[in-house]
Amino acid sequence: MEIKSCPFCGQEAVLNVQEFSFGYKRFEVYCTSCLVAKSNYDSSLSAINAWNHRRGKMNIAVDETGVWKSLTDIEKLGATAFIFKKISEHGRESGSFRFLIYTRLGFDTDAYSVLLESGGLDISNNLVIPPKED
Q1: 59 domain-assigned
Q2: How far apart are the C-alpha atoms of 54 and 109, rounded to whole Å?
Q3: Mean pLDDT across the stretch 17-21?
C-alpha cells in the first residue's frame, strides 16, 4: 500500500517497525521532515491506513484575541493557570515538544502543526526552569 506524503508539511513519510522481545512488533508511519507520526499499530496496513486518512493541517480560522476576549475572567484565569502549570512542569522535568502537547496538555496529533506555528516548539526547546525548593 502506498504511503501518502505528510499532510502537514508535504514531505515524504515512511513506515517504521519497532521489534520487541518474543516477536512483538509495533508499526508507525512518520514524516521524515517534521517528524509527526501515527504510532502504535499492530500491523503495517493499519499504520499506513491511519496515516493516509488523517485530516492533515487543521484549518483553524480563529481570531485568538477574539476568543480570549469572549472568555470570562474566571475562564481566562483557569486556562492561564493550567497552561502555566503544565509549561512549568515541562521546564522542570523536560521532554519533547510532542510530550508537552500530547501528554501534558492533552491534544491529539492533529494539533501539532497549529501549536508548532504558534511558537510552541520555541517554548519547549528554550524552557529551563530550576527545580522547586522544598
Answers
A1: no
A2: 9
A3: 86
Domain tally, the chain? 2
Cα–Cα distance, 36 to 8 (Å, whole number): 8
Does residue 90 lie in a domain region?
yes
Q: How confident is the model at residue 15 (pLDDT cuts 50, 70, 90)?
A: very high
Contacts of 71 (CB under 8 A, 6+ apart): 79
DSSP 23: G
Nearest alpha carbon to residue 25 among 8, 4, 39: 39
Residues 71 and 41 in one domain: no
Residue 58 near residue 10, CB atoms below 8 Å: no
Residues 82 and 48 in one domain: no
Is the pTM value of this prediction over 0.85? no
DSSP state of 13: E
